[in-house]
Design goal:
With 615 residues, this protein is an alpha+beta fold. The protein has 20 helices and 21 strands. Strand 13 (366-367) and strand 14 form a beta hairpin. It has a five-stranded antiparallel beta sheet. It has a five-stranded mixed beta sheet with strand order 10-13-14-15-16.
């Protein structure tokens, strides 16, 4: 069991100054630090960990003024090597060997360690144009040993992380973090229509996840999915909301960000439906769930909203009771029907998952304990008439993306998961299946959203926001009454201030928007400060040793007890004894994530995560 603080707010002094005089002194201090690690009595595992951390600090400092953002050492090192003209092979071997050692996957001998030390010293010497001190020269191998190994590449692979070098009209060229050599990889982005506009979103040094990749005999990669900047996680429900009846557009995401949060009786009814399902799934023999108990819980959770919201009247509670009855009938009858056979015992309610592969995160409503059945609850109506009811496109997309998350995060085959949509107005389940093209369009939409978010932090709002019009968003050119009488006027009312405000007001707005976007980006991807583990992406990009050194993770926890209150309200954990000098960076009130951890390979992206706060 592991607890992890995603907010990490540690700060340490930068290891060197940009001042020229201090710069010269500090390079010598840097080599001295390497020398001290080498001659110490530390075990090789610890030496690798400290030398890896030193390289990370060096790369963060050197890329601090680059115009590109980075979320991990691999992409930073690639950019520096390209900028300074250093051949990457040796230092890449050091980086990969160090990671394997820190993960407990490799146990190098003294000779391998010395060659890795040579790679690090020569890289630092090259970066700063400073000779390696004689004391280090005396212990390093004089020549490089021959590399006899060849990288075995299978005909297909699930995921490749790529740093983009360049592209042309058919291929994207880049280097992989996982494939362990210095060869330039070549991926065809024209196979699927959804990704043919991918070059419009790329820049040199951009990170891509290539998913479900087949490798041709000539070495060309044919991925089914391309995920731009996968460390920038987009919420699945927010992505699905960009799919409207009048069209799908990435700017819908931006509009939804700026819209004020509204509490309507429709939203409150949707929240109540979630409570109804929770109670019906968890009811015990002799203690059946009742509408009155459930609606009281809902009111007690949000009394102010129910008191102040318009539309909370007799008709509202009648609709609520009708939805409770439909949900209870579904759980009691439809769940156990021969066509469904859904087991609610041991089910996971509202489980959360982070999926770095797809660049998505989401919280499902109902997931069977063995992952065979997945249910998404929606308040309101399906589309169509009584005899031809079918799920809304955005709802079906949401279900499809949840299945993709289970596949890429937990290795659950798509065909092994039965997915259902439950509309709270009907006592029935809509069985959903997804198509490859549907997923590809959704990921392409997600990529465009991330590109817009990156443009915002670079003050791109000045071009993006004035360009938005209802006709631009109406990609399907719908003309019915729903569009002309309701949706179009609502969009126009929201967009009018952006088109009519005076120049000073908009200048302040765009400047403030860029500032907020930069802060949000840093909170997701991390910053370039030395010894900094800020950024949510370090949850999976930093290894356990690095997080332990920063005090940002507690491992090997065991459950001591639970505090129950109509379910688990609190978890009390036993904290083991750690090594002397370990200083945890946790405080009362901190938001944390709890997840199961059986070994080094387990992390927050391949396990269910439970969010909570420390008391």
């Amino acid at each position: 069991m592991t607890i992890h603080d995603p907010t990490f707010a540690t700060q340490k002094l930068s290891f060197y100054s940009s001042n020229y005089f201090n710069y010269q002194i500090t390079i010598m201090e840097l080599f001295d630090e390497i020398w001290q690690y080498h001659r110490s009595a530390l075990e090789l595992t610890e030496k690798y960990s400290r030398l890896y951390g030193l390289l990370d600090r060096v790369c963060k400092q050197l890329t601090a003024d680059y115009g590109t953002d980075f979320s991990n050492l691999f992409s930073r090192l690639y950019a520096i090597c390209r900028h300074t003209g250093l051949k990457r092979t040796a230092i890449e071997h050091f980086r990969m060997n160090a990671r394997r050692v820190m993960r407990g996957e490799s146990f190098p001998d003294e000779e391998t360690y010395l060659y890795d030390l040579k790679a690090l010293c020569e890289a630092v010497s090259h970066f700063f144009q400073t000779p390696i001190p004689p004391c280090l020269i005396s212990v390093l191998p004089v020549q490089w040993r021959a590399q006899h190994h060849t990288v075995q590449r299978s005909a297909s692979t699930k995921r490749i992380r790529l740093v983009v070098d360049h592209w042309d009209e058919q291929f994207i060229y880049g280097y992989s973090d996982e494939w362990g050599d210095d060869s330039l990889l070549k991926a065809d982005y024209t196979t699927y229509e959804a990704f043919r506009c991918l070059p419009d979103l790329l820049y040199q040094g951009a990170q891509l996840n290539l998913l479900t990749v087949s490798v041709q005999t000539d070495g060309i990669l044919l991925p089914e999915l391309f995920v731009v900047e996968p460390d920038y996680l987009i919420d699945i429900s927010s992505l699905a909301e960009c799919v409207q009846n009048y069209g799908s557009h990435p700017l819908n995401y931006l509009i939804n960000k700026f819209k004020p949060r509204e509490i309507s009786h429709y939203i409150l009814l949707g929240n109540a439906a979630n409570q109804f399902l929770d109670d019906c799934v968890n009811e015990q023999p002799g203690q059946p769930a009742t509408y009155l108990q459930s609606i009281r819980k809902v009111f007690n959770d949000t009394p102010l909203a129910y008191t102040a919201c318009q539309g909370i009247d007799k008709e509202y509670f009648q609709r609520a009771q009708s939805q409770f009855n439909a949900i209870r009938e579904t759980v009691q009858a439809v769940f156990h029907s021969p066509t469904c056979q859904i087991d609610k015992d041991g089910a996971l309610l509202e489980p959360s998952f982070l999926c770095e592969c797809l660049g998505l995160q989401g919280r499902m409503v109902f997931l069977q304990g063995d992952f065979r059945n997945l249910i998404e609850l929606k308040s309101g109506k399906a589309e169509g008439m009584v005899l031809t009811l079918h799920p809304r496109e955005s709802h079906a997309l949401q279900m499809a993306l949840y299945k993709e998350v289970l596949y890429y995060s937990l290795d659950i085959p798509r065909e092994a998961v039965n997915s259902y949509l439950l509309y709270s107005q009907y006592p029935k389940l809509f069985a959903e299946r997804s198509a490859k093209a549907q997923i590809q369009r959704a990921i392409a939409l997600r990529n465009s959203i991330v590109a817009n978010e990156m443009a915002l932090k670079a003050d791109g709002g000045r071009q993006l926001l004035p360009s938005i019009t209802p006709s631009l968003l109406n990609t399907r050119q719908v003309k019915g009454r729903l569009w002309s009488d309701y949706q179009c006027p609502q969009l126009q009312a929201f967009l009018t201030p952006f088109h009519t405000a005076d120049e000073l007001t908009m200048d302040y707005f765009y400047t403030f928007t860029a500032f907020v976007a930069r802060e949000q980006f840093l909170s997701k991807m991390g910053d370039a400060r030395c010894d900094s583990n800020n950024g949510f992406a370090s949850t999976w990009n930093s290894d356990t040793r690095t997080k332990q050194a920063a005090g940002n993770i507690l491992t090997d926890l065991t459950i001591a007890n639970f505090v129950m209150n109509e379910g688990i309200e609190k978890v009390i954990l036993n904290i083991p004894s750690y090594e002397e000098g370990f200083l945890p960076n946790f405080r009362t009130g901190d938001i944390v994530m709890l997840y199961e951890r059986e070994g080094e390979e387990a992390n927050a992206t391949n396990r269910q995560v439970i969010r909570g706060s420390i008391e």
